[in-house]
Amino acid sequence: MSQQYWEQRYLAQDMPWEKGAPSPGLVDFLAANPDLKRGTVCVPGCGTGHDAREFAKAGFDTFGYDLAPSAIALADENTKAEGIVAKFLLGDFLRDQPPQLFDWLFEHTLFCAINPSERDEYVRATLRWLKPGRDYLAVNYFIPDTDGPPFGVERAEIWQRFSPHFELLAEWTPRSYPNRTNLERMFWWRRK
Ligand SMILES: C[S@@+](CC[C@H](N)C(=O)[O-])C[C@H]1O[C@@H](n2cnc3c(N)ncnc32)[C@H](O)[C@@H]1O
C-alpha cells in the first residue's frame, strides 16, 4: 500500500483500526514486566501514537514512525496534549535506512497492513532497525482475510519467517480490543 493510500485513509477519517487506546496486550505486557531493560523503542506504523505513548509512559525513549503525514501530525499533537515525551517521524519502515538502531521494536497492525508480497522486506527491516541481541515484541493478527488490509497470517508463517533470525522468549494470547478477542497472538522475540 502506498503512502498516498494511507494518507487518504487518514484524511477521509476511514480508520477502523483506531481504537482510541493502546493495544491491551501491550498494556498488560508492560504492567506484568516492570523490570524490563529500558532503552530506545521503535514503533513502526505507529498511527496516532497510542502504543508509543504507552512505552513512553513506561520510561522508554520512544520513536514512532509512519508513512502517513497526517498520522504523524495527530500522534505528535495528542502526545504533546497529554504532556508525554516521544518523537514521531515520517518514515517508511520497509524501505528506509534507520536513523539509529533500536533496543526494542514493537509490531502492532503493521505486518497485517502491508501487502503479503512485502513480507520478506518486512523481515529484512526488523533486522535493519533492531540491534542484535535486543527485543522484538509483536502483536500478530490471526485472521483468514486475503483481501486486506488487514491481511491475515497463520502461526506457521510467523514461525517460518522469524525463527531463523530470532529466539522466541514467549508467546501467548493477549487481552484484546473487543472485536479482536482470540484473534491476536503475542510473540516476544530476541534477535540472534
Ligand atoms: C492499520 S494502521 C495501524 C496503526 C497503529 N499501529 C494502530 O494500531 O492504531 C497501519 C499504519 O501503518 C502505516 N504504514 C503502512 N505502511 C508503512 C510503512 N511501510 N512504514 C511505516 N508505516 C506504514 C499506515 O500509515 C498506518 O498508519
Question: What features would you describe in this structure?
Answer:
The protein is α/β, with parallel strands linked by helices and 192 residues long. The chain has one domain (3-8, 26-166): Rossmann fold, CATH 3.40.50. It contains 6 helices and 7 strands, in the order ααβαβαββαβαββ. It has helices at 3-11, 24-32, 50-57, 69-81, 119-129, 155-162, and strands at 40-44, 61-66, 87-90, 102-108, 130-141, 166-172, 184-191. It has a 7-stranded mixed sheet. Helix 3 links the parallel strand 1 (40-44) and strand 2. The model has no long low-confidence stretch (mean pLDDT 97). S-adenosylmethionine binds at residues 1, 6, 17-18, 44-47, 65-68, 71, 92-94, 108-110, 113-114.
Terminal residue distance: 30 Å
Helix content range of the residues, please?
25-40%
* Order of secondary-structure elements: HHEHEHEEHEHEE
Ligands in the model, by name, code or SMILES, are: S-adenosylmethionine
Q: Gyration radius, to the nearest Å?
A: 15 Å
Q: Which strand-content bin applies to the residues?
A: 25-35%
Question: What overall form do the CA principal axes indicate?
Answer: globular
Largest sheet: 7 strands, mixed
At CATH level 3, the topology is Rossmann fold
Second-tier CATH architecture: 3-Layer(aba) Sandwich
* The CATH top-level class label: Alpha Beta
Low-confidence stretches: none
List the domain count as a whole number: 1
**Count of DSSP H/I helices:** 6
Averaged pLDDT = 97
Short characterization:
By secondary structure, the protein is of the alpha/beta class. Helix content is 30%, strand content 26%. The longest helix has 13 residues, at 69-81.
